[in-house]
Amino acid sequence: MKKEQWDIFDKRHQHVEDQLHLLARRISELENNSTSYGYLSGEVNRLEQEIERLNEENAVLAGKDDDPGSPYGYELVLDLQGCQVKTFTRSTIRRFFIALCKAIDMRRCDLHFWDDRGVPTRERQTAAHTQGTSAVQFILTSTVVIHTLVQLGAAYINVFSCKRFDPATAEALAREWFGAKGCRARFLVR
């Protein structure tokens, strides 16, 4: 798709998301304020049908219309080297996810960490390729995953989304955030 087409796509996509939020709010208001069940029931049914129509339109706009030529998603793979290992903490990684999602316009959902926090010393990871913190930041449209390796001063990041995003923005933020001296980046359309 050309840039102009993506701009139109992004505007329509945002419009559909805005309409979904307005309809959900209206349903909530009706459920909380209506005294007439018949009216409420009819209005809720009408709004639910409208949400279903908008969800279908949203799916088409996002490339989920079963068109084999449409991309399913976009993935950025970053291999950062020469990082400042003091940035490999849960707190710093959490703030990174917040900043990254804001920068590439993604809505954050659940966040899960995997590391040696709370693990008995004898059971902790000691190998260079396993000692560090990993995390999965679920986003509305997929995930952002990070693996940090303390002994190697490296961080491996995958950003996958069925919503289009700017890979250069994500790469620049990651490099700066972790103080990387080097970075190998690959962007895939899937």
What would your notes on this structure say?
This protein has 190 residues and is an alpha+beta fold. The protein folds into two domains: 3-61; 74-189, S-adenosylmethionine decarboxylase, CATH 3.60.90.10. Helices cover 43% and strands 24% of the residues. It is built from four helices and six strands, in the order ααβαββββαβ. The protein has a six-stranded antiparallel sheet with strand order 2-3-4-5-1-6, covered by helices on one side. The longest helix is centred in the N-terminal third of the chain and has 31 residues, at 3-33. It starts with a helix and ends with a strand.
Provide a concise account of the structure shown.
This protein has 190 residues and is α+β, with helices and mostly antiparallel strands.
Largest sheet: 6 strands, antiparallel
Q: Beta-strand level of the residues, as a percent range?
A: 15-25%
CA-based shape: globular
The number of distinct helices, counting runs of at least 4 residues, comes to 4
CATH architecture of the largest domain: 4-Layer Sandwich
Provide keyphrases for this structure:
single chain, 190 residues, alpha+beta, S-adenosylmethionine decarboxylase, 2 domains, 43% helix
Layout of helices and strands, plus pairs?
Layout: H1 3-33, H2 37-61, E1 74-81, H3 90-103, E2 108-114, E3 134-139, E4 142-149, E5 154-161, H4 167-178, E6 182-189
